[in-house]
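Table S2 (continued). Query chain:
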Amino acid sequence: MRAGIAAIVLALSAATPSLAGEAPEHVMDDPPRNAENPAGMEALVLPVGDGAMNAVLYTAAGEGPHPTLLLLHGFPGNEQNLDLAQAARRAGWNVLTLHYRGSWGSPGHFSFGRAAEDARAALAYLRSPGVAARYRIERETVAVAGHSMGGFMAAEAAAADPSVVGLALIDAWDIGGFARTLEDPEAMRRWRVEVAHDLPPLSGTSEEALTAEMTENPDRFDITRRVAAFGDRPLDILGARLGIGGDIQPLSAAARRAGNTQVTEDVWETDHGFADRRIALAQRLVAWLETLR
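Corresponding output:
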C-alpha cells in the first residue's frame, strides 16, 4: 500500500517514546568473513495449502545455532525490506523472507486470509527439526516482524504461537479497521483507485474479491485483537506519520490493556516506506532484536 490509503484510514498523532539502544556496527560495517561458516542465502519453495511460497533464507555467519527472524512484507510487497534482512543477518540473525501464495510468482491464489496462513506455515517451517538443524536455527529464539499488511500477518502468526519471542510492527496496516472506513463512498473510490495499481503482482484475485474479504468480516482482520492476544511478550510498534501508522495509540493501548509490560513504541516523521529513514529503521530493528537474545 502507498501513502494514498493513509488519507482514508487514520488521523495523525503525536510521537511516542523511542526504543532505546543502538547497533550502528551491524548496520554500517561488514563483519570479518567466517571461513568455516560464512553467511549465506538459500532460495526455497515452501509448499502450503493449494500453492507454495517462494522464499529466501538469509543465514548468519558462525557455527550457531542462530536466532531467527521471520520478516513479512506488505501489500502487494513492492518494498521488500531486504536491507533490514541484511542488517539483521550481520547482527547474527537468520532471516526468512517470503512471497505469499499468489504474489510475485508464488504458486496459488492470493487473499488476505491465505497470507495469514502462509505466515503461520513459515513459522512452523522454521521450527521443524530438520530445517532447524540444516540451517543452524535456534528454535527457541524466533521473532516475527512485519511491514504494512505484513504487520497484520506477523501479529496473527505471533499471537497464535506462544513460542515467538518478540513481535515488531512497522507501520502496520489494520485491515479490519480500514475495511470499516469503506462504508464511506469516497473512501471506497480511493481504495479502488489504489488497489488497481497493486494487483499486477498478484494472481487469483481481484479488487472485488479483496474488498469483499475485508468488508464481510472486518473483525477477522482486526490487528488490535491480535496484538492483545500476543500477551506479555516484547512488542515494538513503529508508525510513520506520513504513512498509515501515524496513530499507533490503539495498538499500544490494546497491548497494555491485555497486560503487556514490554511494549516499545514510536512514530517517525516519514512515509510508509521509510524512504528517508532506512538506515535508522535498520538500526532500530537490530537494536530491538538484540534485546531478545
